[in-house]
Every structure is written in C-alpha cells, then in structure tokens.
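for the writeup, i need someone to sanity check this before i put it in the appendix. the sequnce is what the collaborator sent (i think, or maybe the updated version? ugh). structure was predicted straight from it, no edits. if anything looks off just tell me and ill rerun, i have time this weekend
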Amino acid sequence: MRDVRIFFEKKDMAKYISHLDLMRCFSRAVKRAGIDIWYTEGFNPHPFMTFSLPLSLGTESFCESVDIRTNDEMPFDEIKERFQSTLPDGIRVTKVAAPVHKANEICFSEFEILFYTEKSELVLSSLKEKIGADEINVEKKGKQGRKKVFRQVNIKENIQSFDFSENENGVLLKVVLTAGVKDNINPSLLIDAITADVKDEIKGIDIKKTKMMLEDMKEFE
C-alpha cells in the first residue's frame, strides 16, 4: 500500500460544490479512473480518502488536497491524468505526490479577497480602520453539549498578517488567518465584521484561498 496526496484547484462554478458533495465526487472519480484504492475494513467499507481541510461554500481555492491510499505503485503522473479526465469542470488536479506533512500540521491559510467597488478610497479607508482595531468581534457558531449556540469571539489574534491594495475592480485584501483542526477561521466572519460600515458601497466579493501553511509559515506539502 502507498499513501498518495492529490493537490487540486476548485474554481468557477465548482466553488458552489459542498464539501459533502466534493467527497462523493472524488469517490466516483476514483472508480471511473480505475485506480486501485484501499478500502477501510469493517461493516461499512469505503474508499480511504482524507481531505486536508473543508473549504467554505462559495470560496475558490488553488491549494486543496486529498489523501488516498492505493494498493499498487501506479506512477503519480498516471494517477493525475486518470483523475483529471473524470472530474467536473472547475476542479483541476495540479500535482500528485507522496505526502510530506500531516494535515493536522496546517496552522494558517492565505486568502485573497477582492471587494468590487467604485469607491475604492472610501472602502479602503474603512476596511483598514476596522481590521486595524484592537478587537474584531464576530458571532461564531459553537456547541454547548449537544446544543448549537452562537457566541461573541474576538478574532483579532487569528489574523497573522494582512495587506491592502487597489486595482481596477476595487480593493484587494491579502490576509493570512489561523486554520486547521484547532482554530479554523472562516474568512466570511472577517468580511462581515470589517465591511459593516460600507456594505452599500461594495457590489460583490470574491474569496480565493491561495496557500495552506505550517506553524513556521512553510507551505503545506
């Protein structure tokens, strides 16, 4: 048996495929591609498949990954070619390789968030003021026993770094947020918090995940 990591992009209309449907999509793709994948044992065997981190619906990504376990030594290039021919539009395999890091080593994700606006100066000034504040309080979903509850959380410490720039479409924010099994921050929480005063001036928002990184800021491989 051999562990294999498949890196892929999820863009365009594919960004609206939920995580559950994405898992089903890859399970079907494995079968159609004729890859000899290892199945779990027990009463309900299923293909061994582990995604690095769930991606929020509506977010594009250039750096998603899924781990599979194969029963043979099929070359990585052939796995890539076979997979790509079975996946829907918007999902493109970029690399197939042996895993270097464990998924639980992921600590940060880098995002590019484009705010479409005709009033870039006003929006930029407001966003800078909000993200530069001592506290950025948001409502975050959590659990209290079996009950789902919402609580106020300050996510200022979850922002590792940020940088603003202007372009022909509006304002671009590059931001690194905490990620992983322990402290995964959805960028939409940050967006809701910092755009409260200029919602009417923003005509649309695009979110792209560009990197996943370890604690030392090295790229996840």
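The chain has a mean pLDDT of 93. DSSP finds four helices and ten strands in the chain.
thx in advance!!
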